[in-house]
């Protein structure tokens, strides 16, 4: 089966970049990305490419090439579904905030709405592709909805095609993926044809040996597993960062030493203020919930520890600032460099910065933030979402500037929350001169040249080293 038209429901951090790359690499396929969020669609259609709703290095070029040729962004969801041979579902699947499984299970209401909408609208056979990250066995629920509510004898095939891109490197990850995973029904001719149809899309730029096909359940579970393993490495090294601080070992040296063992590997061993992002915590909680649902208590507890460690790491960083600043930050200005959950993205979901700010605001500090890509209102939305204090209190406790020197001026301490490269290039002498003394600096990312800063006069804390001067 040759795919001529693709619809993707959800124009977010995954739907937008993924479809832009598919459109760029498959000029013969019409790709329409739809969303109910009109402002987001308008931003995707903005002539000014710096206004795209997702900031990713290189994305503007890909969109520029394909948009209007075979890549379209629209709010006409029904029309795009009906036209398509293949429909990707790439909507959000956040942690449930209500009812059974609150705080753990994935909220699948948006997925179910999509399935019902596809069933209602479809007049021709469709391959429905799960691009969102979903609990294992969700495909059977989607299939049941599609088969039972269409009523027009339309045939549906369900594929699982989880996305492994990381934000900040989305375009290069999509262009050169380690693997593309496609789960489908290998037992039937129709299932095999559907798998082949999706394989042939990716084969336009991904070598065939890197396109892995499995059964649907393995594919769904592999996505949660991959994120759990990655996050586990960060929590593992973060747990040791605390031990390093007590023992005069250096976590970067330890990471390098163990990472040179090819069985361990060197990636994802960077100690930090804690992992953030929209995926790791959500997906591990989901995995824990699934394990609990099957009565697998030990399995659930094992993975939950990754989250417990991460929460500890964020809290520990904030408490360390408070205790170092003579046990009080009340009324003291603390400068935050970075708010995004990692560099090269404007995404702030679950960013460690939010939690560190929340702890410090509870101690009545005055926070000033600079982040090169995050909008001011987003920071307030992030804090308000925690519900710790009123929106007015968040606004009076935290201010935002567009100038890092302004942010750091008169501060008692600077905290590095995101590893933006530009922070390394600042005039640190100038920053030091304009700060309160002692000028404390807390590097939550192991980003800066600490000996050089100490020479200037800063009193530095670096995650995972013994910090003898403090
Ligand atoms: N962000 C990542 O880096 C990443 C990577 C891999 C996988 N994922 C997974 O991909 C999925 C999407 O993540 P995201 O970060 O792109 O989310 P997102 O919140 O950025 O985007 C989701 C979009 O779906 C839209 N939407 C929701 N319901 C809709 C409906 N019924 N009809 C039309 N549009 C609808 C929302 O308006 C939103 O714009 C999640 O399951 C996530 O776990 C995310
Ligand atoms: O050694 C490391 C590596 C990462 N992090 C932090 O971990 C978080 C997540 O980083 P990263 O995984 O690079 O970004 P995400 O965009 O969240 O990507 C993850 O989550 C996506 C959504 O499921 C998956 O598709 C990706 O494969 C997976 O890497 C960030 O806060 C990083 O700062 C560290 O602290 N130390």
Tell me what you see in this structure.
- This protein is an alpha/beta fold and 470 residues long.
- The chain has 2 domains: 5-206, Rossmann fold (3-Layer(aba) Sandwich), CATH 3.40.50.720; 308-462, Rossmann fold, CATH 3.40.50.
- Helix content is 44%, strand content 13%.
- It is built from 18 helices and 14 strands.
- It has helices at residues 15-25, 38-44, 59-66, 77-83, 109-121, 138-149, 170-175, 189-202, 216-247, 251-259, 280-293, 297-324, 352-362, 376-386, 391-397, 404-408, 428-433, 450-456; strands spanning 5-9, 30-34, 71-74, 86-89, 126-130, 156-160, 180-183, 211-214, 333-337, 366-370, 398-400, 413-416, 440-443, 459-462.
- The strands form 3 sheets. Strands 3-2-1-4-5-6 form a 6-stranded parallel sheet, sandwiched between helices.
- It is globular and about 75 Å long.
- The structure holds nicotinamide-adenine-dinucleotide and uridine-5'-diphosphate-glucose.
- Nicotinamide-adenine-dinucleotide binds at residues 9-15, 34-37, 40, 77, 90-93, 110, 113-114, 132-133, 163, 165, 167, 278-279.
- It is an enzyme of class 1 (oxidoreductase).
- It holds the Pfam family UDPG_MGDP_dh.
- InterPro entries: 6-PGluconate_DH-like_C_sf, NAD(P)-bd_dom_sf, UDP-Glc/GDP-Man, UDP-Glc/GDP-Man_DH_C, UDP-Glc/GDP-Man_DH_C_sf, UDP-Glc/GDP-Man_DH_dimer, UDP-Glc/GDP-Man_DH_N, UDPglc_DH_euk.
